[in-house]
What does this fold into?
Amino acid sequence: MLILAFDTATSSSTVALVHDGVTLGERVAASRALLEAADALLNDAGVVPAELDGVACGIGPGSFTGVRIGLAHARGLALALGVPVAGVSTLAALAQGALGVAPAGCVVVPVVDARRKEVFALVDGVEVCVPPADLAFPAGAWLVGDGAVRYRDVLEARGAAVPPDESPLHLPRGGAHVALAAAYGPVDEVLPAYLRAPDAKTIAERGAA
Amino acid sequence: MILGLETSCDETAAALVTADGRLLASIVATQTELHAQYGGVVPEIASRRHLELVAPVVREALQQARAGLDDIRAVAVTQGPGLIGALLVGVASAKAFAWARRLPLIPVDHLLGHVSSLYLQPLAAEPPFLCLLASGGHTMLLDVQEPTRYTVLGQTLDDAAGEAFDKGARLLGLAYPGGVEIDRLARQGDPEAYSFPVARVPGLDFSFSGLKTSLLYATRDLPPAELERRRSDLAASYQRAIVRALSERIVLAAERTGASQVAVVGGVAANSELRASLPAGALLAPLALCTDNAAMIASAARFLPELPYPQYLSLDAYAAA
It folds into this structure.
């Protein structure tokens, strides 16, 4: 299975070409430069898009626009190639990436910048959106992701271990998405995980306020 | 054939057009009802909906045209102007589609798209002509010299004509989008019942912001029962003022440029009074092609340079013209 895996939900987008679970190449790019990076990867590997068997895409949570850019690319690819798509939680992919790197027994908490002074995090298997000061984790836990980097000071003061800013542990990397992809299916069923409602009130809600 | 995609505002649309301008399929998934409960388009909600609809509209267009993927020779997409988050859904989908099949991509300006609704068969209009583009976001007079080349002779200094309809409708207690509602109600009313002045601005520009203030003054002191009784007269008079401002400027611009053909495109071109007020022989696209659609985007693409693979990989959307 040749899979193109990408995640554009966080501040650094990633794209990887994965063959039978082995990453052939991967790149970091801005979300809007995703296709250039993917093109370079395929060219380096000497393959063309028509040879892809599937797409694995991060579904967030993260930047709303970033999440949509990834999923819109997935839709274009699925339509054009007729390949199935798997959606993978960006938080789960971050946690997966730290497996085997963090010390044994150490709790890993993926933390993504949610803007508005909040973070998205995976706590005990539940995706939450909280201010970093309210994020629950045991002392000594490893916190990874762009949210952990942005709020390093407040999180470290509360006993977290945050890898250096430039550590690849803060990137949701495609190999993790492929490892986690449970099922590849119709792209219409791969939906974004926004975790936050749009900031708008209906006329009825405005009248009630 | 060319696959067109349009996601600049609140319509998710796909279309298939042949190289000689025959429309094989045009699918428009409107979000109007979704945004009506908010009284206007909410950008984040529009962007979310585009993502859900973009693949289904392409599939439906292929079905309607009884075409397959191999029939698509190029992909055209609205690059801007519009809501940036909404545009990005279309641009990312179109780029990925084109890249996957090694097809050329044709980025299209939304305004040129509206003008290009006139180039589709059977109308197949040919420049030069004078064109009024009037929609919820734009009001401009264009001197169209070639299919993809025009100069802007005038534009609105404040509200767009479609915006004036929407705001007026809100003052009259009508549903969003306002243009359709006012048009419907105006047919039962007296357009001379009220005099709503339209600001006289120099040259060929427009101004509609004072108009809605006049309507506000006319309506704010009316008891509900009285407003109800006069609503159709108010709608008819308000519509008359907008239409008069638009049609006067068209005539004036035609005189100044010596244009022998005039055209109206954009959502406001669907207004029945505006259509009736135009000189005989005016170029008008079918109603379905007045509001946002992808057929006009694919139509414009026929006259624009193609970006071959891989020149479009870094192509980005733009919000403002």
Q: What stands out?
A: DSSP finds ten helices and ten strands in chain B.
